[in-house]
Structure formats: C-alpha cells, structure tokens
Design goal:
It is a single chain. The chain has a 4-stranded mixed β-sheet, covered by helices on one side. It is about 40% helix and about 15% strand. A hairpin with a 5-residue loop joins strand 1 and strand 2. The protein starts with 10 loop residues before the first strand and ends in an 18-residue tail after the last strand. By secondary structure, the chain is α+β, with helices and mostly antiparallel strands. The protein is built from 2 helices and 4 strands.
C-alpha cells in the first residue's frame, strides 16, 4: 500500500467488495487497494482438513454418539485454518485504514435492500 504524501490531508476510505479500499484525498486523487486473497491461498489446505474431518467418526446429535478423539483433533486443525483466514481478512482492513492516512474514517456505504449475510467466496475477496 502506498503512503500518503501529505500527512495533514484528510482522506476518505470506502471499504468495498471488488477492491479492499478506495482512497480519495482532498486533491481529487483516487487510489484503489487490491483485495488480498487470503481464502484463495488457503483453499487447498482447507480442502485437505475438511476431507480429513469427514473421514473421522464425528458426533451424532440424534443418537448421542460422542466424537472420536481423531475427529476432535482433525476438527481443531480445520478450525485453525478457518480462523487464520478470518483474522488475516480483519487485519487487512485494519491495516489499510491505519496506513492510509493519519486522519481516516473507514466506512462502508449502505446498499439498498442489503441484509447482513455471509457473502459468496468470490464476492468476499
């Protein structure tokens, strides 16, 4: 990410879907920050761990069967990868807003008819 040449200039930051952030300063310049593709990098590892979890004997709510220790271990490893991707995404947004300008106010623009839900994998990039 490039640094602001004039640190006293106010910069507006819009967080988006296609780009991680759109930075517009008071001089009229607009910069687009690309989305880091954390999920795409971790998909191979996620597939491996998800397959490993599915091959173990998991819990069953209907019969009350407890999960095997191997399932619990595999599930823990799978969750670590998921949490790592989530933390990297959250960190990218936080770092972009703090590195973008000294006086920044990140905001997301409201969309008509938008409801809070999990976005598709390609839209979340």
């Amino acid at each position: 990410m490039s640094h602001v040449s004039h640190p006293d200039t106010a910069v507006g930051i819009d967080l988006g879907v296609k780009h991680l952030a759109v930075l517009a300063d008071s001089s009229g310049q607009t910069r687009y920050e690309p989305n880091p593709e954390h999920l795409d990098g971790a998909l191979k590892l996620l597939r491996f761990h998800s397959r490993r979890v599915s091959q173990r004997q998991g819990p069953d709510r209907r019969t009350g069967r407890k999960p095997s220790r191997r399932w619990e271990k595999a599930n823990r490893e799978s969750n670590k990868v998921h949490h790592r991707v989530a933390n990297l995404r959250a960190g990218s947004v936080a770092n972009s807003s703090t590195r973008g300008a000294a006086t920044s106010a990140p905001r997301s623009l409201p969309t008509a008819g938008a409801r809070p839900r999990r976005p598709a994998r390609t839209a979340a990039r």
